[in-house]
Amino acid sequence: MLLLLTAYLSKYYTFFTVFDYLSLRAILGVLTALAISLLIGNKVITLLQRLQIGQSVRDDGPQSHLSKAGTPTMGGALIIFSISISTLLWGDLSNKYVWVVLLVMLSFGLVGWVDDYRKVVQKNSRGLPGKWKYLWQSVFGLAAALYLYYTASTPAETTLIVPLFKDVAIPLGAFFVVLTYFVIVGTSNAVNLTDGLDGLAILPTVLVGGALGVFAYLTGNIRFADYLLIPYVEGSGELLVFCAALAGAGLGFLWFNTYPAQIFMGDVGSLALGAALGVIAVIVRQELVLFIMGGVFVMETVSVILQVASYKLTKRRIFRMAPIHHHFELKGWAEPKVIVRFWIITVCLVLVGFATLKVR
């Protein structure tokens, strides 16, 4: 939005040409989203308290969590709002990828909002039934996958890049739609499963989102892409602004979500942010690197799958409780220790993800 204004003003004042630089707009995107989150965060918390939109806590989980009951939830709406405003202000609104990511985030956020609303406002413990939640996630995920497939202008946009191997690129054809669908829906649910402790999900999301922003910048620059032997996807660099806004909004939310949390993001936030990470990874052709950098999300998801499978097959549980962060709590780890250690793991995995750019 402001890019159009600065482009007009640059005809009369050359100073405004500085806003053509993607790096500057990304910095402004971080600061804008962070400022919005910090400025209205307390007001959102107060509003949610007044509306009595509080978190319900499982009585079969760690006893330390019982004190969290009633903490305002659905705070993910604050993150989504901050990201959206910042992106609309500093992003190039003629770029199709910006709109794809925004719409995916908003649509998955809507699914999460309905689930949260039914749980905390209508006091329906089931929330949105699983089959309906998965159905709508599938609808939105598949719509994004089909759009990206049918608007792809080069083979590189639908080719699977294998990290560490400079000559291994697998043309996916129509299978691109299937892969994209699973990446978007899978990442959305993985972040949702991780969001069980104060700040546990949001900082890894910020770290992975920031890293994907770097990948987007490199992928959208033909010189860098050629040098690093990664596919060049025209226009994908603009996603750096979205990723920057995500980082700013996430850090602003962490200000209130850090232990002990004043607010939780709820499904409205976790489903939306996970889906956004998934679709960005697809656009910049780094699905496998997302799998590496988002290792904490993967670990949480796999722990649930293994727990359910083991109990159904053998009537025995592998972990004391799933997702795995609860397992460590029940083993005696303090909640902040679990959170910070998972953060450290994410930092290491993001660095490994960056290393794949050169180890080819």
Automatic annotation (TrEMBL):
Its main location: membrane. Its EC number is 2.7.8.13. Coiled coil: none annotated. Pfam families: Glycos_transf_4, MraY_sig1. It catalyses: UDP-N-acetyl-alpha-D-muramoyl-L-alanyl-gamma-D-glutamyl-meso-2,6-diaminopimeloyl-D-alanyl-D-alanine + di-trans,octa-cis-undecaprenyl phosphate = di-trans,octa-cis-undecaprenyl diphospho-N-acetyl-alpha-D-muramoyl-L-alanyl-D-glutamyl-meso-2,6-diaminopimeloyl-D-alanyl-D-alanine + UMP. Pathway: Cell wall biogenesis; peptidoglycan biosynthesis. Belongs to the glycosyltransferase 4 family. MraY subfamily. Catalyzes the initial step of the lipid cycle reactions in the biosynthesis of the cell wall peptidoglycan: transfers peptidoglycan precursor phospho-MurNAc-pentapeptide from UDP-MurNAc-pentapeptide onto the lipid carrier undecaprenyl phosphate, yielding undecaprenyl-pyrophosphoryl-MurNAc-pentapeptide, known as lipid I. NCBIfam families: mraY. This is Phospho-N-acetylmuramoyl-pentapeptide-transferase. The gene is mraY.
